Amino acid sequence: MSLTHGPMVDERADDSAVWLTRRAGIPPVWGRYTDLVVERGEGSWIETISGDRYLDYTCGIGVTNTGHAHPRVASAIAEQAGKIIHAQQNILYHKPGLELHDRLPRTFPGLRSDESAGLFLSNSGAEAIEAAVKLAKYATRRPSVIAFRGGFHGRTHGAMALTSSGVKYRGHFEPLLGGVHFAPYPYALRNPTGRSDEAALAFSLAGLEELFATVIYPDDVAAILVEPILGEGGYVVPPDGFLPALREIADRHGILLIADEVQSGMGRTGRMWATDWYDARPDILVMAKGIASGMPLSGIMARGDLLGRWGPGAHGGTYGGNAVSCAAAVATLDVIESEGLLANAARQGNRLLAEIGEVTAGHATVAQVRGRGLMIGIEFADPDSLMPRPDLAKALINQAFERNLLLLPCGTYGQVVRVIPPLVTTDAEVELAIRTIGESLVAIGS
């Protein structure tokens, strides 16, 4: 009996039409950014089955930080796959996992020489968020969590309740997990009390204090969950005083501070973690995306004494800490360290931020260009009312696509274009991207 559905196809034939037709089998829940069928990727570039090449500044949504198919990462994957693929953590230890558990916690923000941090591995960002919240509730014996407007933390049922970057992520799925409360994120461009960092910070912290005064006692809050830079919510960089202020509030009330570094971590901002930019270390740090250069892997890091409070069986997962994914993660750390990718991300990010600012300067509907390292957003809005202009963001992305540059939208209304190169991107690629963005802006006449 054949397991093939539909007509038999000779897959040895170089027939791109066959693969293009098969796109129809992908369910529409996967909202499409492009219709490209990829053959291979290398560094900052992807090549389609038709032989067209695109400069990929989507980075798999901030995943391929070491570039596509980095030779050292690919070699580590192949070597480990030839030894053992699945070595379930309850049953076996494996070398890549042991090495990762040794090395990655050394990067925990603000870790002193007399302290230790621990690591728990899972598969996806949403899973890691769930783990972080479970640990916070377990350790504090408190029922509630405070998150921020515009934050994105995943699509599983618990993570979805913590997400407010767009209604599409949570709408029609109610009732959601209870005990979640939201405070305003300090978003200076859209702050109702003024567009300065100082006003935005004051408004955000006042909103947090208002929660304590009107909705929930602080001693019922297990954790404050925050993105050091908003991801899906618009690539918003908060004022420098924001995370230190959250740290002080958390300490005052015995609340744990969870930093969601799923998108901002693994060198994306020019430092290993975006939290490293601030004197405000978290109690729990959530990671995924760039941790294994595209292999499914995520995790949380926490102070050793905190992670140690979980008893056997309190949390787990069949595939977490997969041997091949761990090998990819170890190789990713090697590449970041040996090839100076943090410094390259900082340098190329500064150039992109400055020169995108220059090419957008004459376009009134570009409300703001912002970012840190290789995490840059271009926000479109009406110059008088600040009404979001997702139509212009989409138009810029489409024009860039016509010029073989891949970009993505974000923001609650889709009004922000995000520029997310791999950390290996070169001077020539950055120059090409800036020129293409400039040409695309002229084409849309914004």
Distance linking N and C termini:
58 Å
How many strand elements?
15
- Total discrete domains: 2
What is the overall shape?
globular
Oligomeric assembly: single chain
In CATH terms, what is the fold-level topology of the largest domain? Answer: Aspartate Aminotransferase, domain 2
**Topology as H/E string?**
HEEEHHHEHEHEHEHEEEHHHEEHEEEH
Radius of gyration: 22 Å
The main β sheet shows up as:
7 strands, mixed
CATH architecture of the largest domain: 3-Layer(aba) Sandwich
Helicity, as a percent range? 25-40%
Q: How many DSSP H or I helices?
A: 13
Helix/strand/pairing category? alpha/beta
Tell me the fraction of residues in β-strands, as a range. 15-25%
CATH superfamily of the largest domain: Type I PLP-dependent aspartate aminotransferase-like (Major domain)
What is the topology, as strand order, of the major beta sheet?
4-10-9-8-7-5-6
Poorly predicted parts: 1-13
CATH top level of the largest domain?
A: Alpha Beta
What average pLDDT do the residues reach? 95
